[in-house]
Amino acid sequence: MKRWKKLIACCATCLAGCVGVPKESSTPVAPPGVPMSPPGSPPAAPPTPSAPGADSGAPAAPPPDGSPGAPPASPTPPSPPAVPPPGAECAEGERTCLGWDRAAACAAGRWVEEPCAGGAGCYAGACEAGSCSDACTLGEDGCALWDSRAGEFVSPDPDDSMNDKARGFEQFIRDESAPNGMLAWVRFSDDSLREQESWYVGDSSIWTGVWLAAEALEHSVTRSSESRARIEAIVDALDRAGHVVGEPGVIARYVAPAGDSRFRRMVDAFDCGGPDRSHLCDVSHDGRSWDVIADPSRDQYVGPLLGYALAYDALTSRDEETRAVIRRNVVEIVQEIVRLRTVRVRIVINGLDLGTQDVETRFVIPEPRLMEDGAIVLTADTGDIMDGGAIRGAQEFLPNPATFFRKLSLPLVGGLIPERIPRSSSAMMVASFVRFAMRVTEGVPDYEAVHRELSDFYYFNGDEWGNVHTWLDLARSYPTDDGGCDPRYFGTNIALLPVYGFARFETDPALRSAMVDEVVGARIWPRVRTHENALFSFIYGSAAVGLEDEMRRMGDELAGFRSPVIRRGRTDLRSRYTARESGCRDELAHDQAVRIRDRIIQGFVWQAHPWTLVDEGREGQTYPGVDYLIAYWMGRRHGFVASDERHRCLRRE
């Protein structure tokens, strides 16, 4: 059951007789310099893109080994992925690594493979003396760390090398934390980590997608054959999660082969015959049967769509089969999100069934298996204003739920619903997701019509559901307070993750500035700037200007991230951090932050606020470290983290 928190509660409060909510104009507002068609007018051509950047099939040259690395001189977004000209199999300038000492580059429209000469290895898609990139994962038989300068195998040191720390997390993911190709928070019977006891997979889709994003960022830096292989495997797992339910646009939270005794034993409360209809058993898909945890929430889309977009951008035409899967999935999901459809809704207020009615809407993906008598069930409780509403049988991404509420027939009180109930994070998601779909269809034969339709909707949709200008205007309402004691910090995480992709792909400077400067820079960054949150810092720092020194400092701070394996032991920081936030129990003063090296262990540390001082821990509980991987490779991609030890790589002995 998905929570709408204040949003449905606001509507429910209106039903209870709450009045006096001020009305705001819902007219879409275009940023300065961006044309906009009035409602009902024919769509004009999309704005002319600004000059593209340099992140096509070939990565920007990495900084010299051991140097801090220089961020891009300006936040220019990348150019479209390279598209081979007619009759060619690749686009000029594309390059990749086929192994630790084998490269491939596009020349005259054809891929040319090159074995690296003695003493050289493949890094960033080119043979280079004294360099190489990973060709296997730590822990695989025969895989060891090779020092190309010394000409010998060496032991990894995750406490001293940030790259080795990343390799250690990849090893733990491979060995323990990705059953069936999707991430799990694994609990062992004790801290010896010899026997797995349970898995938490309820949020597997988002973190598997974030893992894909991290691999894509790594591949954009190193072009390693191993990062490409992991991208292919993760895309395959997410492709299955996106189609196993059988409803267009619905992403399952987790998928395992049907009858997998380990899955049914490890996942608490999974019950094929139980009352939870989101547990689906023996589902037929792709010639096999699967057990599925369905009923995704908004956050379960954020990870996969960001991961897909970044992976598509990092891969080359040599990987067209994987890119085609990504393209198909992104387009399918986004088309389902923006589709204008009529849904049947049953409304229950304070336990009183008000019956069903048909409602025309966008930004709602139906989940028929979870409906009741063919209807989405919308419930509200006026006595619980914070968590008084829920929806079942659909997943919504409404930037302005008031548009949906006003379409409901609510006797006597329908007119009390305001014109705007800004849901800023959904507005940021919708803008980013549609932009991702435009990106993956850009310049692709057979997708011209899809790209044109998406672009017209994005820039110029004239109905009450709005367009990118409307959504960015709603996003400008993002709350600026810190949320008080124990805030729901994860909301900032799921809002900012898609913004990273939006800032990279949006080529219109006014739209990009609206998101980066007016939403993140003005509303979010002032609140989180002091939180020692490397991911949030790198997302904003990669798009803003003038923060290079601050970002490199945060890169140094990230070096304090704990080495694998991460265990959730008991933590008490009260004697080390003495300032207290008034009125909050065991929270550090909110104008300070716990250092990354001391932070309370979490499944994804960046989505937890930085003030908790005490945690009782949980024996045997481990986390895969995808939070480190995404921050580390984002920092590497933008020069905020030093390009350390590119002369060392994983290869077969």
Average pLDDT, rounded to a whole number, is 87
Unreliable residue runs: 12-76, 384-388
Large-scale geometry: globular
Number of helices: 16
Largest sheet: 5 strands, mixed
Overall structural class, as computed from helix and strand content, comes to: alpha+beta
**End-to-end CA span:** 51 Å
C-alpha Rg, in Å? 25 Å
Across the major sheet, the strand order is: 1-18-17-14-15
Helical proportion, percent range: 25-40%
% residues in beta strands: 15-25%
Number of strands: 24
Question: What is the structure about, briefly put?
Answer:
With 653 residues, the chain is of the alpha+beta class.
Can you characterise this structure?
With 653 residues, this protein is an alpha+beta fold. 33% of the residues lie in helices and 17% in strands. A five-stranded mixed β-sheet has the order 1-18-17-14-15, with helices on one face. A three-stranded antiparallel β-sheet has the order 2-3-4, with no helix packed on it. Helix 3 (204-222) packs antiparallel against helix 4. The longest helix is centred in the C-terminal third of the chain and has 20 residues, at 509-528. The protein starts with a strand and ends with a strand.
Defining traits:
653 residues; three-stranded antiparallel beta sheet; 24 strands; alpha+beta; five-stranded mixed beta sheet
Summarize the SSE layout with pairings.
Layout: E1 2-3, H1 6-15, E2 95-99, E3 102-107, E4 110-115, E5 120-123, E6 126-129, E7 143-147, E8 152-154, H2 162-177, E9 185-188, E10 196-200, H3 204-222, H4 225-241, E11 254-257, H5 261-266, E12 279-285, E13 288-293, H6 299-314, H7 320-338, E14 341-349, E15 352-361, E16 364-366, E17 376-380, E18 389-392, E19 394-396, H8 401-407, H9 424-441, H10 448-460, H11 468-475, H12 490-505, H13 509-528, H14 534-541, H15 548-558, E20 566-567, E21 571-572, E22 614-615, E23 622-623, H16 626-637, E24 648-652
Parallel strand pairs: 14-17
Antiparallel strand pairs: 1-18, 2-3, 3-4, 5-6, 7-8, 7-24, 9-10, 11-13, 12-13, 14-15, 16-19, 17-18, 20-23, 21-22
